[in-house]
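Methods — Computational structure assignment.
A single polypeptide chain was analysed. Its primary sequence is given first, followed by the predicted tertiary structure written as structure tokens.
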Amino acid sequence: MFCQYRAAMSLTPGLMARNGCLLDRISWQILRSGHDRVVGLRRNFSCLTTDAFHNACVSDNRGDTTGNGFHSPALVTSKCRRKNRRFMTSFDSKLGLRMNFFSTTSGQGQNEVQKKKDIRIGPGLEYFIANSSGTTQNEKIFSKRDLEKLSHPYIDVTDIQGHGRKIYFDVYGCQMNVNDTEVAWSILQAHGYQRTNTIREADVVLVMTCSIREGAEQKIWNKLDYLRGLKNKRLANKNATPMKIGILGCMAERLKKKLVEKEKSIDVVVGPDSYRDLPRLLAIVESGDTAVNVLLSMEETYADIVPVSLSANRQSAFVSVMRGCDNMCTYCIVPFTRGRERSRPVESIVEEVRHLSGQGVKEVTLLGQNVNSYRDTSVMQHTGFPEDDKHTSLAKGFKTVYKPKKGGLRFADLLDKVSQVDPEIRIRFTSPHPKDFPDEVLYLIRDRHNICNSIHLPAQCGSTRVLELMRRGYTREAYCELVSHIRSIIPNVSLSSDFICGFCSETEEEFQETLTLLQSVKYNYCYLFPYSLREKTPAQRKLVDDVPHEVKIDRLQRMVQVFRTEASKVNKAQVGQQQLVLVEGRSKRSKREFVGRNDGNTRVIFPDVEVESGSERGTRGVKQGDYVSVVITDSTSQVLKAIPLSVNTLQGYGNAL
């Protein structure tokens, strides 16, 4: 019976990077030796030479030597342990560990204390070997699904199972956070967790957070105060299961360990690229410890995980196609909380949309922090695939802070393939950057009846000088030229935008330029915010947030007023038009009315009456998920009111135009 050498080490990724070759050599030798294995080695280490480790762990010195010679066989006898005690003691002293580097445990099973230690230690060396590129184990190449099962070789499978524990999700922020929550729920559901919609019944409360603005974070801090009270009440009941609180997403990535230092009630902190590790982290906190994993990835896209919807009978779904952002706008925290840009393979996205079509979903929104910079390079990695030297196309007058990217399938390729999955599914996308709108994307939007003629075009500001400070990569003139170019190709396009007021050193005159841009472009919808300084951003390091808060609020109010005035004009111009609306359900204000969205993503309200059915003779009532042809009769700055005409199909309505 052989012993297991255990290393309770957790060193930095930098040390691992400096010793990559050493890790490879150790892995190969351990696999060859067969009789010894190292469990729980989380990172490589710089303080140990290759020869020292080789002699310590894998040299087959079976002779009965004296002195410092290390005996690699099982160390099951007291004689062997005595002969190697000097080496083991000096080894522990050199590494400065609190516990012995090697332990001589038998293979007859481990007690509960040892299991908890194993959980805290983290992934074993064999995990890294199994996950390395081109590695085989027992002459088998593992798929991603197989590797998912091998991701915790250092503890029993039951240790990371939920055993029916109830999870409650509290989601804040953008649509990407909604999709991330569905990914996290898919992972936890596969490990035996159950979901509850009642927070007081939850054994684990996971809060999906947002860091884009200070106001968003403040809402989460307020919610944590409430959750702390629930947790304390649960602790007071000795018969109740203790409640665990977890922070997921961007706020977890931005604040990291500061969260658990400031808010002692938090048990788990998980960044956007670490959701696969949730089962292990939740297993750790069961023993009373706190678990943190906020490691950003250059590759993680969760392409192999099918998100599980949080809502039943949905008509719309979000599909994440890329993650991260390379633009490095000076005000934005996204590159620091979401990491660098990486895109999912086209085929995995098409397959997910096909799956949603089979579930009856009628509208799919493609998601990404910079969605139209999508670039699938996975096809370039296959032998024989021709190398594509074509640079990424930018809109006229736009530039980037990074060098032009070569090769890969672009956003136009993705839109083309996704729109062909089901002609009865509407396709939307958000959030794009204005620079990534080459003509091939615009013509595809115009020509495909199921790609909505709705484009989000974030301007952020109307002043060229402020845009330069923001590092947006364009001038006011270039932006306005792009708007004109889009409308020349797609005359009936609906435009929306983002604006920030009160950015560093913005003057009143420069703010007036933002107001005139709102008046000239005439957006259908806008997201308007006062500037909120975020730590770690270039603006925080290099600029001065010198616009007083009261001035920001005043400018925001004026910006909102101008937008609503112009939006009222845009909506009023649609009165009398016939439009196709996807019904979302009953109106919140009246159960006798339905609400849906038109092609331009504007809400449309109409009465619940029987209408003609395009596929059936006679009339019938409208139901959720129907495409209904309506005539617009009235409008406000926010909604359109209409009279329903008939139930239709997306393809049939498009052909009739």
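Note: The CA atoms of residues 66 and 344 lie 57 Å apart.
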